[in-house]
Every structure is written in structure tokens, then in C-alpha cells.
Amino acid sequence: MFSLTVNSPKPLSLSTPFLPSHPHSLPTITHKPNLTPRPISALIIPPSGQRNQQYSTEGPQQQQLYQPFRPPPSPLPPKFRNLDINSKLEVLANRLGLWYEYAPLIPSLTSEGFTPSTLEEITGITGVEQNRLVVAAQVRDNLVECGLDEETLSCFETGGAELLYEIRLLSGKQRVDAARFMVRNGFDMKQAQDLARAMKDFPRRRIDYGWDKFTGDSPGDCLAFWFFRLAQEHAAAAAEESRVEAMEKALEVVETESARNVLVEVLEGKGVDKDSVIDEQVKVPLVRMKLGEVAESTKVVILPVCKAEKREFEVEAAPWECDGVGDFGIVEVEKDWRRWVVLPGWQPIAGLERGGVAVSFKSGKLLPWKEKRKYKEEPVLVVADRGRKEVVVDDGFYLVLSGGNGSGDEGLIVERGLTLKEMGVEKSLGMVLLVVRPPRWEDEEQLIDED
């Protein structure tokens, strides 16, 4: 209903000296609008689909049913779904129930506005443990979906969060195989971590010696190959006791017969590493770097780098000391230097406190031993100890300056101690401790997280 008001105009009054003193008011005109409401007609046009159905005679009308939104099922166990916030906090604080039952309460409380630090103050569960419980519960749910038997699942009811958390990056099938293997062998958290790394790392090691004899679908073979590689690193670092220990661990977990035969042959000295040096008289460790090896090392060695073509000038001018200072191990050096390299703390260089230097060679052609041609073309790093310049060991190797025989190709080379003695050379630039080959970038495969 509409309401309309019209104001009437006020009468005009004119007062001038030329008009009479009694003015005549102008007539008042009032406009009254017609307020009679008019009828409104509207046509409601249905959507095209309904219109076609309404006027179509080809078939019966199809009834469209309204489907309301159905939220996903709650991840909380039935006995915890109707709890209020205080009750949920009490369950977590007192660990009421099995770990995978109360673990979903953590994200539920997080959605209510609780932060990890607040939950830690109230329940006593640290932020790290909160994350471990939530992730492990998700892994357990995935194991149930993948059909893991109840008997194996029951083994993770007590202390299983620490184990299942470590296999979070494996695929569903790998998780099932790893869970069964861990239960059979009674693994702890550290062993579960090594197993997960070994299974994830195995596909990228196809170029390594003996890889084809191990089975990637077998958790035991993956872990055995992990220890087998570790044994090779210990062998390159001349740590015989550690090598034997790693080989024995590999034999304890290996599952296939072909892999076991390789381990037995290498342990007995019958196996030959294809990357090893052909000349049996070489007494210096020769190691190939692996991608990510420095990041996994608990101890590293930082060395100044010199170019072989710069002759002895850079070797003598390079810093002698490089120490880690303070709680954070901040590196301090005695002088500025442009090039540095970080190497894993292998045994031959782990105790090198001062005088160490790494010399970069464009190829391995200047190494005084026989190698395959493809290895001769690779660049190498020669690590030498400048504190041991006297040529005293016949089977040792030393860094010396080559005369070039007048060809103008003077530069640094590596020479055997006996050869230097026969030439009458008594001092060198340093004794060679290690020769390092670069990683094979073109053959490495990237790991894909299937979580």
C-alpha cells in the first residue's frame, strides 16, 4: 500500500507603494493525485529444462529430488564424538584409550582454536609428539584400508606411533610390507627409520654395484642393500671393522638368495667392486660422492680448494686452519679464500685439523694408476695433508709439481712415493689422503613422495 502526501503552495503576498494597502490573495490550486492501485500481472517462466519437460509429450516427467549436503564422516571414534571440549582435553591429558583412538582429538581441538603450545600446556603432549600421533594414526588408517591383518595391527597398539610415523613417506603397499617386516624382526624406532630410508632410496641406486641382485619389493633386501652400501663406504675409508659390522647386519636382514650370495662373496673377499681401482697396489682410498651424502653426515670436513693448473702457488697460499667455534660451530679461517668444499667426515680426513687442502683436477689422467677410460675423463678432487711433506712411504702417494719435460704443461700431479724416491725427490707439497669422484647427476632419480 502506498502513501502519498502533496504540500499545497502558500499564497503569495505582494506589498509595494504602487498597490493598495489591502492586497488580494492569489487563488490556491491543489493537485490531488489518483491513488487508486493498479493491478500487477506477472508471468513465472520455469527453467529451460523444466519447460521442456512440462511441454514435452515424448516421455513422462522426471522428478528432481533435492539432495542436501552430507558432511564427511567424523574421524573421531564413536565414544569420543559427543564429548565437549573439556572432556576431550581430559582424555588427552590422561591418555584415556589407545593412542590411535585419542590422536584424532588433536586436530579436532585445533579446529576449535587450540594451538600446539596451548595443548602442550594443558595435556603435557609436546608439539612434536602431537604431530607424530596424528600422522601415525593416519598411517594406521591407511594400513587398515590396504588390508593389513588384525594380528599385525595389534602389535602397534602399544608404542606403535613411533614406528608407523617413520614409514609415512612410503606408498600403501610399501607400508604394509614394512609393517609386517618390522613386527617379524622386532624393530625399534631407529631401525624403522633406517628401513623406511632404505626402501625409499633403493630405486635411485640402480647404477650401484650389485643392485640388480637385490629385490626392491622386499623390505629386507632394501635394508640389506643399505648396509651393503654403508660397508663399501667404510671400505673406501679403510675402516675394516666397521665394514665387517655393516656386512653382518646386511646378512641378518636379507631375504632373497641372490642378494645373500652377493653379500657372502663380498664379505669373503670374492666380490669385486666395479668402481674400484684396477691397480691392486693403490693404497689411497678412492671414493665416489653420493647425492645428499653431505646432508646425511653427522660430521663434515671443510677444506680450501686449489686448481691443479695454478701449480704450487695456491697450495702454499691456502689457509691452514678452518675451525668451528662456539655452540653453533661457526667456521672461522685465518685468511680469506675464494673456493671451499664440504666433504663427509670420512675416516682418512676426519682427524685432519690443519694443513688440509683439496686440489681440483680436470680429469683423472694425472693419477698414477690404471683405470677404465670413462673414469679417466671425470674430474677429481685430491685431498692432501700439507703437514706431511716428506716422502717416506713407498706405497703412499704425494702431491708434487710436474716439470712438464719442457712442454710448457707444468702443473700439479699425484705420484707414488717409490717413484719419487727413485727420482731423488725427498719433499712434496703434501701426502695424498683421499681421491674423490663427483656424483653421477645424470643417473640419479628423484624420489617421489607417495604419501
Automatic annotation (TrEMBL):
Gene Ontology terms: cellular component: chloroplast
Region span, Disordered: 46-73
Source taxon at top rank: Eukaryota
Residue ranges constituting the Rubisco accumulation factor 1 alpha-helical domain according to the UniProt record: 156-266
Polar residues composition bias: residue spans: 49-66
Protein name: Rubisco accumulation factor 1, chloroplastic
Domain Rubisco accumulation factor 1 C-terminal: 284-440
Domain (Rubisco accumulation factor 1 helix turn helix): residue spans on this chain: 84-144
GO biological process: ribulose bisphosphate carboxylase complex assembly
Pfam (any one): Raf1_HTH
Matches recorded under InterPro entries: RAF1, Raf1_C, Raf1_HTH, Raf1_N
Keywords: Chaperone
Keyword Transmembrane: no
